[in-house]
Structure formats: structure tokens, C-alpha cells
Amino acid sequence: MSCSSDSNINGDNLGSDDDDGGENQNTIIALSEFNRNYNSIESNSMVKDRNFYWATLVENNAIINNLIKDDVELSVYLETAKQRLSNIASQNNVTSLQYANALKFSNNEIIAISTAIKNVAETNAPSFINFSNSHIGPAGVFNQFAEITEVDRLQQLIVEEMLQGINQIIDTYVAGIDPAYPDLDRVSYDVNSSQYRLLLKNLVSDLNTNTNQMELFYQPFLDFALGALEINNRDEAARFMPLKLGENAATYQNIQNIDWNDYQYSMIVVLGDAPNSSGDLPNISIGGMLRSDHGVDLLNQGLAPLIVFTGANVAPFQSEFHEATEMKSYIMDNYNISENKILVDPHARHTTTNMRNVGRFIYKYGIPIDKKAIVSTSTSQSSYLSSSGFLTRCTTQMGHIPMTLHNRLSDFDIEFTPKIEVLHLDSSDPLDP
Fold it and tell me: Which pTM does this prediction carry?
């Protein structure tokens, strides 16, 4: 997270109304708690909604939109961004790296912009407090900032995270810088190829012809980042969404009929396994079938009313098959399991997000959060889950530990309960935020 600064976008000193470091009492907020009945706002881009929900909220809130749009500092930056877009669009033989460098936020710009947002929120604290209590708190997706007590600082931190997330997409899917898991999540093209440079040129040209529709400081570069994801076929964050109206609809409706006192556990969570070994089918691995078999056995013992499969289309690269949905189909075909007992998370690309995403189901679907669940997987992965190395990886990559582990039941199975931090959307992982 970038440190806040009192330098504005043009390098001038904005000063501070709070030089002694104390809280401005006019900006104090007791943020509303997460509400699972909160109705999310949607734009025309589910990828944007999942990665940059603050932008979607601002664009659909006339009061906050106008306050940001009318701010002098942020208006100047919008024109600067449009000019950079126009300049690079007019050039020939532009490399992918040059596009990336021209159309993302510098570290100094992130600091200056977030400081300007802080000033807007401080000056208009009642409007931003209402905005935050109506959306920022109950949505849950910003809850790593839930302990922030000043609304202006809250908005500043959210915007810093958003700008860094936009840069992350541009670095990976324009400049070709390897993400944390390059074998799974990398750019789809050779970024130095003439084909990719032409795709970027066409994207930039199209954006440049539509700058009159860009009214907020972040839109030129956000639209460029979203366009880069699109030309790389990297819409994974939007696939199957909203799950509770699609793949999970039958179970989501059935959850309200479950008497949780009848079961020792809330769910059996089965972690996915990619079909990338000898003997695997194209759509499901031998390991995935074995894990599914064991999960069904636990379900049939009456330990829990639900079985949950988690795993995306991680291997082979950009596979059309998603581990979770393939395991769901496998048990429905082979065990005659009713669909209203099955939940799927087809987005998680790593063990860390496997655990995070099923935790989100527990909080958002009305499943008892204090009732233990079982996570079931291979012996080696189960051992890894309970290691200090896994906890360190969670903290390093996601900024939080998604669960509390309890008793080990077997070589394959461990009890767990989720932590509310799982609700925070992570734009640094744009394929599964």
C-alpha cells in the first residue's frame, strides 16, 4: 500500500487540515457491518464490478460522482490521462511496454490522486459517510479497511488499492510482466509480436475516440486495463456470475430449508485437481474423481447437508474445463446426488483462494459461520493446508488468513471455520478477485 502524501497531482503542497496527526471529528465513521442481504450494484462489466467495485458504486451514485467529477485536482488529472491516451494513439510502431508505461498510474500519481480523494471526502464528509454506510460497509468487499475510523482515510485506501490493481492488470496483460503464477495467469500472447501490438493499437485507438464518455479521473486507464483483459480472453472473474442465480441456484434456494442442528458439519469442501497428468481425462483428473468419491462418502454418512467443489480452469493453460463444475457433473452422473446439495466455486485458481472463496459462500449464503466445515483433499495438500508455510502464503498473497483450522479427522480431512476477512475483493488477482 502506498503511503499517503500531501503532494497534489502537479507537485504543489496541498497542506493539511490535520497537521497534528489527530482525527478530524467531522469525518469519524462507525462503518456499517456486512449485510448478506445487501444488493450489489452492477455495471455493464462484471469484470469491473468484481475487481473495482468502488468505481461501479461511484458511477451509479450521482452525489459522489459529481463531487469527484467537479474536484479541480481530479479534473486536471482526467485531462492529463486523456492527453496521454491521445498522444500514444497518434504514434506508430509503439511497443507493448510503451503502451503500458503511458497508460498507467505512476507511484507519485497514486499518492497524489488518493490524497485528492481524501480531501474531497473530508470536505464532503456527510455525503461520503452516507455513501460508505450504504455500500462500503454492508457490501463486505472492502472489509480489510473495516477498522478505519475516518471516512476520508477509508476512501483514500480504497482508491490506492484500486489504482494499484489497474496497474497490476496493465503490467501483466500489456507489458507481459509475469504475475505470481505465470504458468496459469500470464498474458495470452507474445507481447513483442506484431499481432499483439496491433491489438493494443486498435484498443487504444478505440478508447481515444470515446474520451468524451470518460468523466472520472481513473476511467482512461481503467478502460485500457479492462480492454487488455478482454483481448487476452481473461474474463474468468465474470464467468458463471452471479453464481447464486446460475450453477448454485438450486442449492442457494434449498439452504433456507436446512435444519443445521441435524448435522455435525455445515459442508464438505472438496478441493479441485487439474487434469494435467498421465491418465487424466481432458475435463477431469483421476485425482479429482478420487477426491469427489471421498467427498460423496462423507456426504452420504450424513455429516453435512452440502458438498462444495472449488477449482477454476487452471490447467492446461486457459482450459475450457473448470475443476469445480466438472466434479459436480461427475458426482451427479455417478452417484445420483441431487443438485440442490452441491455448491461450486469455479473461480479459485490456488489453494489460498479455494479456502477464501468457500468462506464467502458461508457468509453470503446464510450458512452458520460458527458451525465447523470439513475440507477434504489429497494427503499432501491436506498436510500443506495445516502448515505454517500455507498461512504465510495466505498473508503474503491475500493479506489475510481465510480460515481457522480445527481437528484433523483423517489424512484427507480437516475441520475449519471461515474468517470474515474472506469477503474483501482482491484486485491484485484480477482473474479471481
Answer: 0.92
